[in-house]
Amino acid sequence: MISGTGTLLQALIDAATDPAFGIEIVAVGSDRPGVEGLARAEGAGIPTFVHPLARGGDRAEWDRGLTAAVAAYDPDLVISAGFLKLVGADFLARFGGRMINTHPALLPSFPGIHGPRDAIAYGVKVSGATVFLVDEGVDTGVILAQESVRVSDDDTVETLHEKIKVVERAMLLDVTHDLATRDWRVVDRKVHWLR
Ligand code: GRF
């Protein structure tokens, strides 16, 4: 699932070309038409769909439609790779526990859609990225992996976000590979890798 330029998606597309990586990307969905990430998917021959939420549209209805659109591809894992909408109860009833998201801050600090901006505004010296299991909250799910980056005095929102995206991409690939190829379960907010 994407909403934008799809550099995280591109990393997944590239990784998936190696069968040993252990995933097949069955579809790429976006809530926004015309974004670069969709073109990346099309270029790689991956089926795409767009499911926009109209301004003032019914959120529950949108969520039901999104659930059906994703369910049509019957994925084992749903990856939110820069998908900027919150999914709702229907979606989580079907895909909860097997949908991951990546966030450009060290959760629980700076949740929401402005992680790098909020980190700069607060003046932290270290930020980073978090990969977590999506739940009904805003960036509150079980943390699967985190990686830090130093914030320099001359960092801007843009330069910090670019630094974060470097570690974010590598971490998303590692977690995706592990989830796809190992047995795991979550107990008390901790992921246990069983083999
Ligand atoms: C990532 O930093 C993601 O965590 C954030 O938006 C960025 C997505 O970038 N929500 P891209 O669309 O994969 O280039």
UniProtKB/TrEMBL annotation:
Residue ranges constituting the Formyl transferase N-terminal domain according to the UniProt record: 1-175
Pfam families: Formyl_trans_N (PF00551)
Keywords assigned: Purine biosynthesis, Transferase
EC class name: transferase
Transmembrane feature ranges: none
Catalysed reactions listed for this entry: N(1)-(5-phospho-beta-D-ribosyl)glycinamide + (6R)-10-formyltetrahydrofolate = N(2)-formyl-N(1)-(5-phospho-beta-D-ribosyl)glycinamide + (6S)-5,6,7,8-tetrahydrofolate + H(+)
Pathway: Purine metabolism; IMP biosynthesis via de novo pathway; N(2)-formyl-N(1)-(5-phospho-D-ribosyl)glycinamide from N(1)-(5-phospho-D-ribosyl)glycinamide (10-formyl THF route): step 1/1
Entry's EC annotation: 2.1.2.2
InterPro entries recorded: Formyl_transf_N (IPR002376), Formyl_transf_N_sf (IPR036477), GART (IPR004607), GART_AS (IPR001555)
Protein family according to the UniProt entry: Belongs to the GART family.
Protein name in UniProt: Phosphoribosylglycinamide formyltransferase
Organism: Microlunatus ginsengisoli
